[in-house]
Amino acid sequence: MPLVRSASFNLLIEIVLRIALMSAFCYMETLPPFKRVIHPADLESLYKYPRVDSYVPGGTLWAIVLSVPCVLSILAWGCCNDCNDAFEILLAWSLALGLNGVLTDGIKLIAGRPRPDFFYRCFPDGVETPKLVCTGDPMVVMDGRKSFPSGHSSLSFCSLGVASVWLCGRLGTTSRRRGSAARVLITLCPLVVAGIVALSRSCDYHHHWEDRVVSPLCLKEDTLKPPQVEAAWFHAAQTNTDLKKMRFCALPQRPRNL
């Protein structure tokens, strides 16, 4: 009973921490960023790109982000009959998403870098005011000062990165005897999708190239290592498995006495 109570308490702490991170993330989304001084020359050269609708709207982005844990949990539980792995996927994904959101928004608020289309956010009619006082919608203008880093890029790499790590461990992509082109391609597919989302943010003039490059770095490696995923990485890199016994769901137990 003490062990059960301890496990339940630890799980409660994990859930509370994730709720706190997600709450902080949502709250930071509403905060105004630092108002950086913009020189007239920069306003004309760097921030005067036309306003274009997002190629990957927010609704589509969140559909991708939220579908990842659902799909992975169904694969782990339904196809691999591994309930523990399905639950740990949710824990890993939720922690990664919360940390990534807080870190990305924190940098956005501190940096306050204008977006490439900031001019037309600030002056929708294309006419500057004498003291460069914005005449556009205050919420649109505020969002226009949150270019660095890209939230779309960081969220997509965060969620799809978890999927890529899980597939790498399940398929044994990096194993010396189990590696193959098909496994490599399957493992890289989520990252390719994340890369497409990131590239779209410069095509629609919502971000500078630096915003997209730095965004994936906001995701820390230790957020992707719950017990089962860590064991999968260790197994893929360190063990040799008979090819005849190779199966998609052949994830080993955590090594003991290492």
From TrEMBL:
The chain crosses the membrane at residues 12-34, 54-77, 89-111, 151-169, 181-199. It holds the Pfam family PAP2. It is found in: Membrane. InterPro entries: PAP-like (IPR043216), PAP2/HPO (IPR000326), PAP2/HPO_sf (IPR036938). GO terms for molecular function: phosphatidate phosphatase activity. GO terms for biological process: phospholipid dephosphorylation; phospholipid metabolic process. It is a multi-pass membrane protein. Keywords: Membrane, Transmembrane, Transmembrane helix. SUPFAM superfamilies: Acid phosphatase/Vanadium-dependent haloperoxidase. Residues 89-218 form the Phosphatidic acid phosphatase type 2/haloperoxidase domain. Its main location: membrane. One of its GO terms (cellular component) is membrane. Belongs to the PA-phosphatase related phosphoesterase family. PANTHER family: LIPID PHOSPHATE PHOSPHATASE, RE23632P. This is Phosphatidic acid phosphatase type 2/haloperoxidase domain-containing protein.
